Amino acid sequence: MHAVFRSISPGRAAEFTQLIDKDVIPVLRKQKGFQDEIAFVAQGGAEAVGISMWDLKENAETYGRGAYAGVLKTLEQVVEGTPRVKTYEVSNSTFHKIAARATA
Question: CA torsion sign, 29 to 69 to 48 to 56?
């Protein structure tokens, strides 16, 4: 899972949401291993968090080295500063079936 934290330009939250829906999600759907995208906008619209789910870490990394640059370009008109990207491993989810890890 990749989590991206962004500051949204003042008064641009609705436009940010539209760009995610119209331009970003179609790009993500074309990426190998993409599973889901969840975007959150803070009350007041000053910040956003985007969480993308991937089948394998390698596919998320490939996206990060390739198509992600185009996504940033698309959103640069409505966000400020450099997004912070973090990678996490999903341990629990009610939305996605998570493969159980074998423990020794």
Answer: positive
- Does the model's pTM come out above 0.85? no
Listed residue (84, 23, 77, 22) closest to 48, CA to CA: 84
Q: 25: which DSSP letter?
A: H
CATH number of 2-87: 3.30.70.100
Predicted confidence (pLDDT) per residue in 59-96, tens digit:
999 999 999 999 999 999 999 988 888 888 888 887 76
In the chain, where the domains are located: 2-87
The rounded distance, in Å, linking the Cα atoms of 5 and 63 is: 17
pLDDT digits (tens, 9 = 90+) for 39-55: 999 999 999 999 999 99
Kindly give the interhelix angle for 68-75 and 57-65, rounded to the nearest 10 degrees: 60
Helix (H, G, I), strand (E, B) or coil at 37: strand
